[in-house]
Write a structure and sequence with these properties.
Layout (H helix, E strand, L loop, with lengths): L1 E5 L4 H4 L7 E10 L2 H12 L12 E3 L27 H6 L4 E4 L5 H10 L2 E4 L5 H5 L2 E8 L8 E15 L6 H12 L2
Parallel strand pairs: 1-2, 2-3, 3-4, 4-5
Antiparallel strand pairs: 2-7, 5-7, 6-7
Length: 185
């Protein structure tokens, strides 16, 4: 199935999605990679406010390249999500609903996705120029000293994504290969 979603999202918005579905995502998406995640957790530990509201948020694990003249953003392909695994469950428990990246996630992230009615979506790795076409506006909102890893607020339109982990425990990295093997018997 294909769904069109607009952020912010609730657990009810995400409940129909199943691993393997496609999503065209619109609305506000925040960028945050390793260093930004570390700073967010440090801020939380100190009781400080985060640079954006986690409730219903979408976080894209991307460090875009500099934009060329006339462009909103440079290449914006996903980074490996596993580097955020140790930090993601806490953010999910605080209201983050959509994570966007590439690659497998660990058991703690999978449990947090189910517990919070969230999803993990895959962006097309190696297709940063295609992903960038969905970005309509960009604003650096926190930690500009991190360069490409600074937190940015993106406005996206119909960003093409695939559901990897759904809120019901579905995992495309498990079900996909199994379904394929059934077809070649």
């Amino acid at each position: 199935m294909q769904y069109e979603l607009t952020t912010p999202c609730t657990a009810a918005d995400l409940a129909p999605l199943k691993a393997g579905d496609t999503v065209l995502l619109s609305g506000v998406v925040y960028t945050a990679r390793d260093q930004a995640h570390k700073r967010m957790l440090e801020a939380l530990d100190k009781g400080e406010k985060l640079p954006f509201d986690l409730e219903g948020s979408a976080i894209y694990y991307v460090g875009p390249t500099p934009e060329r003249p006339g462009e909103v953003i440079g290449s914006a392909g996903p980074t490996t999500s596993g580097r955020m695994d140790a930090m993601s469950p806490r953010l999910l428990d605080l209201g983050n609903k959509i994570m966007i990246g590439k690659g497998k996630r660990d058991a703690a992230v999978k449990e947090a996705v189910v517990r919070n009615g969230a999803v993990y979506l895959a962006a097309l790795g190696g297709a940063g120029a295609l992903m960038a076409q969905s970005v309509k506006t960009l604003e650096v909102i926190a930690w500009p000293d991190l360069g490409c890893e600074a937190v940015r607020r993106l406005t996206v339109e119909k960003m093409p994504l695939t559901v990897i982990l759904d809120a019901h425990g579905g995992d495309l990295y498990t079900s996909g290969p199994a379904a394929y093997l059934e077809t070649v018997k």
